[in-house]
What does this fold into?
Amino acid sequence: MANFKALPIAAAVATALVAMSASAVEFHGYMRAGFGANVDGGSQYCYGTGGPDWHFVGRLGDECDTYAELSLSQDVYEKNGEKFSVNTLVAYGTREGFADARGNSFQGVSLSNDGTAAEYSTPWEGQRLSFREAYAKYTMKSGAGLWAGNRFYGRKDIHIMDFYYLNNSGYGAGIENVQAGPGQFSAAFVQHKWKNPTDGSGNALEGTQVYSTANTIDLRYGNLQVGPVGALDFVLLYAHPSYTKNQEDAIKNGTGNVGDYGLDNDGFSFTTELSTPVLGGFNKAVIQYSTEGYAWAGFKSNHLGDSYNMEQGQDDRKALRLIDHGVVKFGKQVDFGYAVVYAQLDKGNGNNDDAKFYSVVLRPQFKWNDTMSTILEVGNYSQKFGSTWGAPDWDDFQKFTLAQAWSPLQNGGFWARPQLRVFASYYTGSQNYSGDIDSENDTMLGAQVEAWW
Amino acid sequence: MKRFVTIVVALLCSSACSTILGTGGPHIPPKSEAMELLTAAPVCCQTIAQLPFRQISPGFNEAVEISGDEPVYEFPSGRSFVEGFRLPVNRAGYSIVVRSEIRNGELFSPYLLVLNDKFEIVERVAAEQFTYVPASGMTGDTVAYSLNIVPELGASYLVVMTTTEAMTKTTKYISAAKAYALANNVADPGVPDPEAIHSPVGLIALQVEGTFVAPVGAQKDAVDQWFAGLWGTSSTPDAVARPADYEAVARAVPDSSAALVIAPAAVSSTAAVAPTAASAPAGTMMAETEAMYNEMITKTVASRDIDKALKLVDEAERAGSASARKVFIDEVKKLK
It folds into this structure.
């Protein structure tokens, strides 16, 4: 009996001895939600949405979705300067698209399992859930880390465009932050899937390999200080398609949907970035060159690196992209976010009619007092895809958004979140983005919250 | 377009009118202005006993603006705006968590004095003993300290002040751009962390707990406990890992060598002397006090109130005892 009683006390003593080794669960996250109205009637229409597209003319007052990320991580082992951490992140979102597909408040996530229209077919559905991070990392005494799992990997973004100009996220393994000379070296292997191969009749080509696959190597050398100018980052992505025998045979014979998945060329994407601390903030100048399956994402689409485009039409393409963006402060009351993106695409195979576009977004913000700001966001997008794609002239598109915003965390200035906003957006320009809705989509009003922690 | 102009005008108007909506936040003057206020303000009192004291008790959890119209007291460490609180008496030990928020790159760097009913100092917490806590959710960047009130020391009053020396220093905090990157899993923007300058004014918050709580930085919330249960802890008893602030916590000691009377300082600044740094490394406790703690620990373990005994151990160590933990362990072994 005495022993029985002593046990919990012994446990209590052990607890006492380690009580100070508490390792907190880190809870991070992001969310945005709100509503908007088209002044011509109906709900909001948005010209750019996170995900497949990015906000070429700025995201403020142009987000027709609810999106949230909830991340929990913890150091589960820590001893002698070494530690293991376990990290998870789930993402929740409504449908992304031009039309507003935010549904009602209803206790349904998805009403059908067939993966078709359940996402958004009624206002009682329209919701998605995704497991985006599940990885563990072993951080050594030197600061170097070893990781494996599924993760967001070294993503580089422009917040005001919701544009990830580099995003080699996915399932993989790697080492990171190995001190090598003046900078740090990281290497990762990340696997990307592309499409489901089918035979000539539209049936799955084989039972065991659901998707075509590209294996990617990601090599980075970063934080190389170059005096007062800032720090340089170099990133090389290299992808190699890997096909099964059945897939190889189909590619050789041109059967089934090989056009969708049969690009049998290696490709690479090289990014150089110079980060400069300036005016209480930063400026980043970026040069990117991408080939083959990386070319389209390296030209115009969002999330370069989150996949390797294995359509045969990507053959011999090359893209060059130049970016300059930053967030700076002018005095105590004015914050300024800006981004300029220029890109051109060599369509390959002797086609000299390059596609081009440029995009400029400016977001000045004036702080009235400790909680309230006025934000203006102005964006211009212009593209000329060339006569071989039936677009010989420059098309352009502009957005003007004015928002009144409230946040308790004015210490953050431009980055102060959570932030409540009311906004008015006006769109104009020669580019007809709004063909699928039966009213003029030029003026939107709404309210939104954005938060991260 | 005309309609858009109308909307814009309406929004601008709303921004002008929304001073109504925007005035909810605290009005804390910038340091330059606050320094003038501090210099110009008359000294409120000749002795600390004359300060106004506000009663607080467990459950109290409020923000307190130090905005430049508080009483000014001439401490040996320099002139400071002062907030005085009267502590609950006749109750078991408890903690007061004191926070100060970095606002617009400025921080009121708090210095705490705990006084007994004769207005003698029984404990002091120097500004550098506060721990930086990064912004999260609705809470901004703060420095925080969990002050344990031990009834045996006769704590009756809490004075929140700052010192001339503290106002020459700065506190580094995580840049908002980096916080964004952490929250959103994107690459670090590579911006140097800014330094908050220390101001005579600021926004503080006091949370009075019902019992002792763990030091700032070592607190476990429900989520932590859930995960701890799920994965267990890998630390071994020989590893007694302590958070970085533990040593600072250990230094937060009552100045038990002598009860210092706060005399009104000479108004001449040349005569002002900074208070001696509050530091009492382990083992510097008075023998009588150490024995008192050890006796209490012995009794408490004997009554099998391990939790309370542990708190006493922490408390005693914090006050400089070198023997409390050993006494505790020895007593627990005797239970078998």
Q: What stands out?
A: Confidence is low (pLDDT under 50) at residues 232-280 of chain B. Chain B has nine helices and 16 strands. The first strand of chain B starts at residue 53 and ends at 55. Residues 2-17 of chain B form the longest helix (16 residues).
